[in-house]
Specification:
By secondary structure, the chain is an alpha/beta fold. It has seven helices and 26 strands. The protein has an eight-stranded mixed barrel with strand order 18-19-21-22-23-24-25-26, surrounded by four helices. Strands 3-4-5-7 form a four-stranded antiparallel sheet. The longest helix is centred in the C-terminal third of the chain and has 17 residues. It is globular and about 80 Å long.
């Protein structure tokens, strides 16, 4: 599993206590037309500010206008009917009519109906209501806007350019927008790749609504790009369990082809309770992990609880569903002790995938939905930084947290904590990820 070292922050409810430590685990663009498409009946309109939303007050008369108002359906709406509604809403906000309409003298017949907010621009929503025993239908107008700045996922972890090579800032940084799938990256300052040196620039990412985020960074032009250093201390599995000696937990590892031939009998003897193994990965095509079959057979034979994860770069819901179906096919009815983990980690140059924040969250939901159709459950693997700043996990699926610290301060609910990527234990050559399962947090 790739490592997640990124610089952002957010927020899970049971507490783990033991050894004097506590871990908190609580839990298409439509421009606004100069004249609306609606046939309207309005005499007066008052617009007031209400936070970031404006409230539009509408009463019914027989005057046509281009204002944001309620429309006549197949019969005249009584003059005394009025509505006050939110005039401006944020893109992707899920708002039912009962909240969208802030005041009215009618009875809404579909109060839980959501207004459309998936595209910015001027929109309308049909409203069915009852007044004095009669049913009517009209349409209310509103504007969907985007006021959220792009998010910088990688501010330049390795800001190196080789001497005499072209400078491409997009290959060094990563960014994403909540709505725009292709925000624009620019910078001010100069980077002269014909001369070795350090160059200070200011980078800016701007979305189609004009929202922008800027930051300063220093680019290094070098004759040779330095190899990454690994100064991380290694931790024995027994020491790991002794340090994180919380109540009502289990200890486990996750493995892939990087761990090659694991001796699971030795692993179990050292106190390991479970193993989550990579079944496969996706870079344009689905590939099974070279050691998956062996890991599954031997871990099960050793009496360990088992789960699987899938590393993906899917950027469409169809791809995610195809991968979920492939996983189901490989499992062939096998029962798992853990949900199937969705592992998406390509944050370094995220913009190359042509997605926004909403898209990837929908891809995760599609993956889980396809699993559930076939009797399995999905789980989200991610770091604290991206759980806080990217993932919405709107259906509260179980979370596998990656956070390499002594005591996590992640405040969202999680079922598994990957607390170290530098474990050592008998039966495994090299490093292995070490995990803590919070047994009181449900997986299903």
């Amino acid at each position: 599993m790739k490592r997640l070292f990124f610089a952002f922050i957010l927020t899970a409810v049971c507490t783990l206590t033991a050894c004097g430590k506590t871990v908190s685990t609580d839990s298409d663009i439509v421009p606004k037309a100069e004249t609306t498409e609606f046939v309207v009946t309005t005499a007066s309109t008052e617009t007031t500010s209400s936070g970031t939303a404006a409230v539009n007050k509408t009463t019914a008369t027989a005057v046509s206008t281009t204002a944001t108002t309620i429309a006549i359906a197949d019969k005249k709406i009584p003059d005394e009917v009025y509505f006050e509604n939110i005039d401006t809403v944020e893109v992707y906000d899920e708002i039912p009519l009962s909240e969208f309409i802030t005041d009215t003298n009618v009875t809404l017949l579909e109060p839980d109906k959501k207004i459309g907010t998936k595209k910015i621009g001027h929109k309308g929503v049909k409203v069915k209501f009852e007044y004095n025993g009669e049913e009517y239908e009209g349409k209310l107008g509103y504007d969907v806007v985007d006021t959220t700045n792009p998010v910088i996922l990688n501010m330049g972890w390795n800001p190196y350019v080789k001497l005499d090579q072209p400078f491409n800032l997009s290959s060094i940084v990563g960014y994403v927008d909540n709505y725009d799938r292709a925000p624009v990256l620019t910078y001010t300052g100069e980077v002269d790749t014909s001369n070795i040196g350090t160059y200070d620039i200011t980078a800016t990412v701007t979305d189609q609504s004009g929202n922008s985020t800027s930051w300063d960074m220093t680019v290094l032009v070098l004759s040779e790009i330095p190899a990454p250093e690994d100064n991380n201390p290694r931790v024995n599995f027994q020491d790991f369990m002794d340090y994180y000696c919380y109540e009502n937990v289990s200890y486990g590892i996750d493995v892939s082809a990087w761990q090659t031939n694991v001796d699971y009998e030795k692993v179990r003897e050292q106190g390991c309770d479970f193993v989550i193994m990579r079944m496969g990965y996706y870079y344009g095509e689905i590939v099974m992990d070279d050691y998956y079959q062996q890991n599954m057979e031997n871990a099960t034979a050793a009496g360990l609880d088992v789960g699987v994860y899938f590393y993906t770069t899917a950027n469409t819901e169809d791809e995610a569903r195809e991968q979920a179906r492939w996983i189901v096919e490989q499992l062939d009815g096998r029962e798992l002790d853990y949900p199937v983990a969705f592992d998406w980690e390509e944050w370094g140059q995220f913009q190359q995938y042509g997605m926004n924040v909403y898209d990837l969250n929908q891809i995760f939901e599609a993956f889980c939905d396809e699993l559930e159709k076939n009797g399995y459950t999905g789980m989200l693997y991610s770091s604290k930084n991206f759980l806080n700043n990217f993932w919405t996990n709107k259906n509260n699926r179980p979370v596998w947290l990656a956070h390499y610290v002594d005591v996590t301060d992640y405040e969202g609910q999680f079922a598994i904590w990957q607390a170290s990527a530098y474990g050592r234990m008998d039966g495994i050559e090299g490093d292995v990820d070490m995990n803590i399962r919070l047994n009181e947090v449900p997986l299903y």
